[in-house]
Predict the structure.
Amino acid sequence: MNLLVSAMLVVIAIIHLMPLAGVLGGERLAALYGLSFDEPNLAILMRHRAVLFGMLGVLFLGAAVRPTLQPLAFVVAFVSIVSFLWLAWSTGGYNARVGRVVTADVVALVCLAIAIVARMYAVSRG
């Protein structure tokens, strides 16, 4: 079970690390999201978002190898994933590339559910 939890956290980490490439600039952000990031303020905000997602990804990788970090990682992942999905679904009208992010977050949410159930099972088995 511990291996399953770790594997799911690694998948969640990879999904959260993918936007880190956006820190390299507007062209990379445009490739990720299918939008123009020529406006400097928007580029700054989105590049900072990329850094924050990188930090989340590192947390999830750390939790994959340090079980003591897993409860924190589960809460942070849940808030990150569910908030994005809620924002996307409640707003609607997003483009195909943002739709891929939505799909990736659905995958991450399934992985998170599997990880939580597996962790609970492992803890209950002692």
